[in-house]
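Dear colleague,

As promised, here are the two records you asked about, laid out in our usual form so they can be pasted straight into your sheet.

NAME FIELD: protein one
SEQUENCE, THEN STRUCTURE:
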Amino acid sequence: MKRYWKKLLFFARPSDTPRQRFTKQLLLFSILSLGVIIVAGTAYVYFVQENLLFQKATLPQDHVFSYDEPFEELFIETEKGARINALYFKTFRPKGVVLYFHGRGGNLDDRWGKFSREFTRRGYDFFIMDYRGFGKSIGKLTEKSLCSDATKCYEYLQDIYPESQIVVYGRSLGTGIATFVASHKNPKMLVLESPYFSILDLTPRQMPYLPRFLVPLILKYHLRTDKWIVKVRSPIHIFHGTQDELVPYDSSTRLLKLLKNKLDAYLIPIEEGKHNHLQRHPKYQSELDEILS
């Protein structure tokens, strides 16, 4: 047995020269080192994946929001031990309402509430929620809870507006959530800004050291935009910067290919646009004007 393991360790042959033996030892060491790196990297992603996917920023429960336009702060109890904080901006004689699902970082106060102006000035009320663990929202965060909380916010708006006046808008992380909601409801339209094909697809592209066959097993969040988008009956408008450094532009082109038989699905490329600040590009503004006219 000892002799067997010695041969296995060194790939040894009696006829090997010292140089050949050294080369084989080096090769085996490299293979083992690579294996250790892959195992360690995979374990790291498994245990810290929520911190990698979400950049939570909390707020004190007594925090007071301040904006220049009329708004209402809401708390929606979604299940026992879970409560969603939302802001609801209102405009005069609205054409409808935009239900907005934000990206992976920040909260309603430090980043996302200000986006209301993009839509209220175009004649739409604006409703935006913080995910569990963000801002004042509380509760255990899971993919299931993300989608169910988002659906409950949509249903809250259904009591106020007909579905023909509800626009579902998702940005970055929020695109998968928005697509889930639109696939189970029938809003006026679905608007996606910088969408990913799925988190299953995006993760190995950002972390190429992860073995692809392990990705579905270790990830707790799959967010299958690709699976849900084909079930959306409403018109779909997709904005994506061609120079997006976080979510590759081809994520959107691949989503559009899934919709090749859908006549009301559109991709709007923002030339030279990166992941953030697409609203600064004139084409984004003009296209949004037309979409929400």
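NAME FIELD: protein two
SEQUENCE, THEN STRUCTURE:
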Amino acid sequence: MLELLQKKNPTYHIYQVTDLEFDQYAKIITLSDTDAALAALKATPMPKQDNEYVASDKTLEQLALSTTIQNKLFGGLPIQVGYCNGHTSKMNCLEWHQTPELNWFTNDVVLFFGDVREMSNNQYQTSDTKAFLIPANTMILLYGTTLHYAPCQVTAQGYRCLVALIKGVNSMLNDDANQAQSALLATDKWLIAHAESHEANEGAVVGLLGTNYEVKI
């Protein structure tokens, strides 16, 4: 898979999660008794095009695995567990939170990562990102310093991704917070968009500069 993807996408290097470069952005999480949760994740709806993000899904939140994630990875803080499913293939945007984010994938995907500490005036060069092939059934914890966005599919089947965050992340802003920072789009969600993205057309800050990388399959 990696060799074929790299051949079709020669303009950027695709790393593996076992490469040392991955450690700057996230770490692999291993939890037991995931079969029921994986089946529930695979049963979540798949859009025919683009992607759909649901911040809180009651079926996923009631799983024993979600309690384990809350206690072992978020120190017992209340969390929300949802999903991001779809067929996206371009970088388009980078977002970040002040808190970690857990992702778990049913399919192989490519994720583009950056580091918020390398940003300047809400601008970031796409050439400073790194692309990683994340194997199916891999669970990763993204650090709060990691710039990231929706996965990119590597097959026509698309992807399903469980997303666990501190409860309230991505919820609607109050008026004071909304006026404080232009890149702040939702609670604990900062985002910069590429000029080619639909997010930019909807008013997001255009701060992602350079080539809007696409994963060709």
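A couple of things worth noting about protein two: The chain is about 20% helix and 35% strand. The helical segments are 2-8, 35-42, 58-61, 64-73, 175-180, 198-201.

Best,
R.
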